[in-house]
Amino acid sequence: MTIYILNNDHGRSAEEIIDNEILSLNRVKQRRHELWILTCYVDFGILEEYVEHLLKRIRITDVYLTFNFSEIYKDGPKNTAKKLREITSRLKNKSVNFQWRALASSKLVHAKGYALIQRSNGAVSGGIVLTTSANFTTPGFKGENVEIGYLSTKKKDINDFEKTYDYLWESLGKDIESAVFKQEKYLLQYALLSSGLFLHKWSGSLSQHLGIKYKLTPLAKEKGAIAPELAAVGFEAGDTFTRQVLNMSELPAKDIPSSFIKQFTIETYWGRWCPLDAWNALSTSFEGAGQFIKEFEIATIESTLIDASEKALAVQNDLVAKGLIKPVNENHLENWVARIMELRSNRRRLERFYIGYEAHELPYTIDQKAEIEELFDSLMEAVELSKSTNVAKKKIIAAMTKANPNVLALSNEQIQRVREMSRSA
């Protein structure tokens, strides 16, 4: 029995451990080898790369992959199935049979293990098995994370792994079809929520994020909402008092059409749920965000920020001396420059400034059952209480009735409708 640390800096990756052990196998070019992968999280992108790597060293005839069911929602059930079909086809062209199953449970199927099994006349003749904490992802399998694993070449361990794998395959394996959702109401709820995005209306202003924040003294507050001396040097009132030193008045802006919000979203306590197809169709109109970001970057180059901070220091010292703002630490303006520099590199936040909304994926994982059910109840309550039925609500009702998340997909006509809304906004 050998237990390894699986990490590039403190040991070797799971991939490298298996590679090194291949040297101990007999007749690797003649005998059939099967690659068995059991993982919770999966990166489909490294599968073919790894099989190609193995084919240069041994004869691979079969690849089996199992992963946690919720992984299909990273790209959606349809896209995941399409991706796996394409992998199947490409591996078939290399004379490799590929089969996969998504394993469904009310909690995570969290097991991880890898095996290379040699066969002779249908029976196990040798091989390698690694049971580990490492997922079949780049961080887990390729040694970025710190993982541990038990490696064995004993036939008994290989047979035990195969037997356990077969049991999970048969007892938890599910097709990505409506049958699973008819049997598993909770999985359907999770699937529907995961097949959309949650839109959060941003109620702030760009100037509040760009301004230099200060606390006012009692003397300043006695002079009204904003003391004339403060207004004269660019102070604005808001949740906090900020002084504006950057000119952003010329930046373009675009709002999401109110007609889109009314027709393609449903209110929940976490934001407005929107089918992924609808958001993707709308987001094609956000091309102007690129121009917004470009102009923002031009207006906030480091030399401009440093020049603004140097000028702001003189004003800051004067206002402190006059007793209008409270003293700040010596790094106050340096921190402001650093904050704006971080903001200019955060494309997602800058897009939010442009469109007025931010789109978030479902914030819960499949094992957070109470939170998922509460959020789904919030969605369905909005559907049931609404006097009118919009496109998103019709989609949810149909998907629930047919127990099929694929029903959420928009028709070509509906996608065109979204694009027309965008152009007319």
Characteristics:
alpha+beta, Endonuclease, Chain A, 8-stranded mixed β-sheet, 4-stranded antiparallel β-sheet
What kind of sheet is the major sheet? 8 strands, mixed
**What oligomeric state do these chains adopt?**
single chain
Kindly report the spatial arrangement of strands forming the biggest sheet. 1-7-6-5-2-3-4-8
The count of domains is 2
Binned strand content: 15-25%
Proportion of helical residues: 40-55%
CA gyration radius, whole angstroms: 28 Å
Flag low-confidence runs: none
List the SSEs and their pairings.
Blueprint: E1 2-6, H1 14-22, E2 32-38, H2 47-55, E3 60-68, H3 77-92, E4 97-103, E5 113-120, E6 123-132, H4 138-141, E7 147-152, H5 155-172, E8 173-174, H6 178-183, H7 185-194, E9 196-201, H8 206-210, E10 212-214, H9 218-222, H10 228-231, E11 235-236, E12 241-243, H11 258-264, E13 266-268, E14 271-275, H12 276-283, H13 288-299, H14 302-321, H15 332-344, H16 347-355, E15 357-360, H17 369-385, H18 391-402, H19 412-424
Parallel strand pairs: 2-3, 3-4
Antiparallel strand pairs: 1-7, 2-5, 4-8, 5-6, 6-7, 9-14, 9-15, 10-12, 11-12, 13-14
Helix pairs in contact: 7-17, 12-19, 13-16, 14-15
Pfam family, one: RE_NgoFVII
InterPro entries: RE_NgoFVII_N (IPR019065)
Domain Restriction endonuclease type II NgoFVII N-terminal: 18-163
